[in-house]
Amino acid sequence: MENISLTIDGKKLTTNEGNTILWTALENDIYIPNLCALREKSEPPASCRLCFVEVEGGVEPVTACTEPVKEGMVVHTKGKSAQRIARTAAELLLSNHPLDCSQCLKSRSCELLKIAKHLGIKLKANRFKKLERNLPIDDSLSIFTFDPNKCVLCGKCVWACQEQLGVGAIGFTRRGFKRVVSTYQDAPLAESRCTQCAECVKVCPVGALTFKATK
Ligand code: FES
Fold first, then answer.
1. Cβ atoms within 10 Å of 166's Cβ, excluding its own
2. Radius of gyration (Cα) for the chain, nearest Å?
3. Which pLDDT score, from 0 to 100, does residue 215 have?
4. Residue 145 and which of 20, 48, 57, 195 are 20 to 30 A apart at CA?
5. Do 90 and 33 meet the contact criterion of CB atoms below 8 Å apart?
6. 30 CA to middle of ligand 1, Å?
7. Dihedral sign (CA 190, 45, 115, 8)
8. Does the beta carbon of 65 lie inside 6 Å of ligand 1?
């Protein structure tokens, strides 16, 4: 595979042809906010809209997870337009995300908190109206809990359950604001095809899927 030279935020880098801006940046300790990208997935869903960057000579910001690197490319991860789009996407996610972070078992590793901090977003001073989802929490399994109110719809759990493991206990259902990750006919996980492998918990970037505390 051919080596490609490019510059990201002033840092001269080389990577393999076919790599995307997102993975090249992350592999070189340059953070670009992202929720839905998975290394193992050849076709990124590009649904979270958080990874916008600016490429010199480009007309508009592009999603770093879908944009392949090109020889001589010059990328800015902190351009004004790109950050404005990413900020809006993050604020929309926060507008229906519970902010009980001190109670959340994933608060120390929460990717949404990291993104808000990176983009300079104050959690409680959101310009969008707060919309509570009030969905029932699934506590039916012995090892983990699913709180759909905290789900950011990144799709990583669905990928792990369906494509990585071939179990297919969970998937996306409904449209628009009502879109959720759920089981067939919204059955509790304990009555679904879930094998309790917990791979979904490991890939969840927020507190939607959490291991139960061991007694
Ligand atoms: S990581 Fe690029 S759109 Fe989600």
1. 7
2. 18
3. 54
4. 48
5. yes
6. 15
7. positive
8. yes
